[in-house]
Design goal:
mainly alpha, 434 Repressor (Amino-terminal Domain), 2 domains, 5 helices, membrane, Helix-turn-helix transcriptional regulator, transmembrane helix, Cro/C1-type_HTH, Lambda_DNA-bd_dom_sf
């Protein structure tokens, strides 16, 4: 899981903690803290430990990937296609009901 390494380092430094102190507080290894602060790579357990120690919500540390242009176009296209299909189906049902009432 990707978290913001700058935020982790800043929060640690604000408390005046060393990387070893943070590792001990979170019950993780020093190497894990170093990796988090360098690469932003953390397991879910590490994320939960950091959030508990810093008393913050997960969303403060998580890096949310932004969708690519192609992904946005696919979502938009499929949404429009579904809406068109649904409108056609409903229109057909309404038209058939009217015809049944008028001619029936």
């Amino acid at each position: 899981m990707e978290i913001n390494p700058i935020t982790v380092k800043t929060l640690r430094q604000e408390k005046g903690w060393t990387q070893q102190h943070l590792a001990d507080a979170c019950a993780i290894s020093l190497r894990t803290v170093q990796r988090v602060e360098k690469e932003g790579s953390a397991s879910n357990d590490t994320l939960l430990g950091l959030c508990a120690v810093f008393e913050i919500e997960q969303k403060k540390l998580l890096v949310i990937p932004k969708p690519t242009h192609d992904q946005m176009q696919k979502v938009s296209f499929y949404g429009q296609w579904l809406l068109l299909a649904l409108a056609t189906l409903i229109g057909g049902c309404i038209g058939a009901s009217i015809m049944y009432l008028v001619l029936g």
